[in-house]
Design a protein that fits this description.
Helices cover 87% and strands 0% of the residues. By secondary structure, the chain is an all-alpha fold. The chain starts with a helix and ends in an 11-residue tail after the last helix.
């Protein structure tokens, strides 16, 4: 017990508190947004909203892997005068991704309309219109996390939360709330907050055209495997709504999404730790080598085991009651599905520290391989059994894929750290 208390007290309580509070606001806002769509628009609209969100998460994987994660790792290895130019390159990369992804989404919406998938085409078009603001908003908060200025991230996210929910309720009052309307309401909130954010923070960015491509190549060394790893995770988690929609229907997709959204109530702790863990791990590794990295991973794993373990037990008991309370009676009767999904989330949490360490050690190729195995397991089970056994098969597929992929990632971490010597470290950490 004394050892546990010692580990707990050694954590930066203030920093952790800011991270959990900030992510609670972000997670709570997203959760409330999903509830509003599900309750006020019905299971079918929630199904369309969930399908479009899978596309957003795929684009977000590119942002995280190629821009924000490399930025978080490499910025701690730069002198102060070089950080503003690297930040300028990063925001140029974000805008380039926004232009490319928006163009692809617009073409996709046109094709869907051509093939008479009218409702879904409107949803995708709404996502396309608001995508640049989504990408910039996410980059802005991760920018502050990279420098551990969590108070600024908190102000940003409180502002977004207030305007986002207000816009959603306004759209409902005007009779415009739908899956497409939800994307437009959220995008409008992001745009307004980002305008004031840029006015306040633009001095921290210095764009030099001759460095944009060079910095992209530096990010590519880390991000090429990380993006493949992130995409495999997205496919494993978010391909299931598509499988359900094809094998069953959109309403069942909405019910599954409601269960998955309930499980995401644990995301504030999980994502808060992840947002702080990456810069802390990168900083500890740069200053203290492997010993510092091991200590950070150990503390994070302990905290996640306690927090996510309690959350998993709670949902395993009261999950069905909560989904009925939040979304309505039409979404109930799925306690086993919720239990499997929350156990999968717990397993992922227990290996998050190891996965972050592999990223800092620039062994994202191992992360990709572990996630690839997980996605193959998930899709094999889902495609084979969802049509016959419904949502239970989908949850089982998620649990099996997550467990196997996470176990492989943990073994890779232990093997790499156990065999690595100081002479093997990147030059910047010696």
């Amino acid at each position: 017990m004394k050892r546990l208390l010692s580990l707990y007290r050694s954590l930066n309580v203030r920093l952790g508190g800011f991270a959990v509070l900030d992510q609670a606001i972000v997670g709570g806002t997203n959760f409330l947004t999903t509830i509003l769509v599900g309750r006020l628009c019905g299971t079918s609209e929630l199904g369309l909203f969930a399908l479009a969100m899978t596309i957003w998460y795929l684009i977000l994987a590119f942002l995280e892997s190629m821009i924000t994660s490399p930025f978080t790792v490499f910025v701690h290895r730069l002198e102060d005068e070089n950080r503003t130019t690297y930040a300028g390159s990063a925001i140029a990369h974000v805008m380039s991704l926004a232009v490319l992804a928006t163009t692809i989404l617009a073409l996709g919406a046109a094709l869907l309309y051509w093939f008479e998938y009218t409702r879904f085409s409107v949803v995708i078009a709404s996502l396309a219109v608001t995508l640049p603001f989504r990408l910039l908003r996410h980059f802005a908060r991760r920018f502050h996390y990279a420098s551990l200025n969590l108070n600024l991230a908190l102000v940003l996210d409180i502002s977004v939360a207030t305007l986002q929910i207000s816009a959603m309720l306004t759209f409902y009052w005007l009779g415009l709330l739908s899956a497409a309307g939800a994307f437009l309401a959220v995008g409008a909130a992001y745009a307004l907050v980002l305008l004031f954010w840029w006015i306040q923070q633009k001095k921290l960015f210095s764009v030099r055209r001759n460095l944009i491509f060079a910095d992209f190549l530096k990010n590519w060394t880390l991000g090429r495997w990380l993006v493949a790893s992130q995409i495999s995770m997205i496919v494993a988690a978010y391909s299931l709504p598509w499988v359900i929609a094809i094998a069953i229907d959109e309403s069942q997709t909405g019910i599954y999404s409601a269960c998955a959204t309930l499980v995401c109530l644990g995301a504030p702790l999980l994502v808060a730790v992840q947002n702080v863990l990456t810069p802390q791990s990168a900083s500890a590794f740069a200053e203290q080598g492997l010993a510092g990295l091991r200590r950070v991973v150990k503390k994070a794993t302990l905290g996640l085991a306690l927090g996510m373990g309690c959350f998993a037990i709670f949902l395993a008991i009261a999950g069905d009651l909560l989904v009925r309370l939040f979304f309505g009676a039409d979404y109930g009767g799925q306690q086993t599905v919720i239990t499997l999904l929350v156990i999968a989330e717990l397993v992922y949490a227990l290996t998050l520290g190891a996965a972050t360490a592999l990223t800092v050690l620039e062994r994202t190729d191992l992360l990709f391989r572990s996630h690839l195995v997980g996605v193959l397991v998930t899709l094999t089970i889902a495609i084979t059994f969802v049509g016959k056994y419904g949502l239970l098969a989908a949850a089982t597929a998620q649990f099996a894929g997550t467990t196997i992929g996470s176990a492989i990632a943990l073994l890779c971490y232990r093997n790499i750290v156990g065999n690595m010597k100081e002479a093997d470290l990147p030059e910047t950490t010696r």
